[in-house]
Write a sequence for this structure.
């Protein structure tokens, strides 16, 4: 997806280290599919916490995400589901990110429900469980180290 504000996404090598977590938030009048993006902790010689933060900020820019402390803006159609497999269009014209999701997440998305995408800037271990990811999101939110937006499946 491109637009007047579109920014270049990070390179594919960086994007390969991005982890995606999905869930369904049930506390609204209707369910909201959630997609959390975070980067694995530094593992290569050229990676550092600072370079990962900068890369995740570029990833959030490419998605046109808004500030964490405001309403999540509509960011266009970024989620696709083809043959039962969901993927995220993160702004690279040639590449997409595939994601694993439970049937409950797919049901919300396929029914036209909103998908809330949150990108956190600080790295986290790629083998982190659901509780660790949820805590990490809260910590990043408190520090202002995240951005978010809303999209829909087309």
């Amino acid at each position: 997806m491109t637009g007047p504000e579109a920014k270049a996404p990070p390179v594919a090598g960086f994007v390969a280290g991005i982890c995606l977590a999905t869930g369904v938030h049930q506390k609204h009048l209707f369910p909201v599919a959630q997609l959390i993006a975070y980067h694995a902790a530094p593992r290569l010689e050229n990676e550092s916490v600072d370079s990962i933060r900068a890369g995740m900020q570029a990833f959030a820019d490419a998605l046109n995400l808004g500030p964490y402390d405001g309403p999540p803006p509509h960011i266009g159609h970024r989620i696709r589901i083809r043959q039962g497999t969901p993927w995220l269009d993160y702004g690279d014209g040639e590449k997409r990110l595939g994601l694993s999701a439970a049937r409950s997440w797919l049901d919300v998305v396929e029914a036209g429900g909103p998908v809330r995408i949150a990108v956190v800037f600080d790295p986290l271990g790629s083998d982190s469980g659901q509780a660790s990811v949820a805590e990490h999101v809260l910590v990043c939110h408190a520090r202002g180290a995240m951005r978010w937006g809303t999209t829909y499946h087309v």
About this structure: The beta strands are 18-25, 32-39, 66-67, 79-82, 85-88, 97-98, 115-120, 146-151. The longest strand covers residues 18-25. Helices lie at 12-15, 49-62, 103-110, 130-143. DSSP finds four helices and eight strands in the chain.
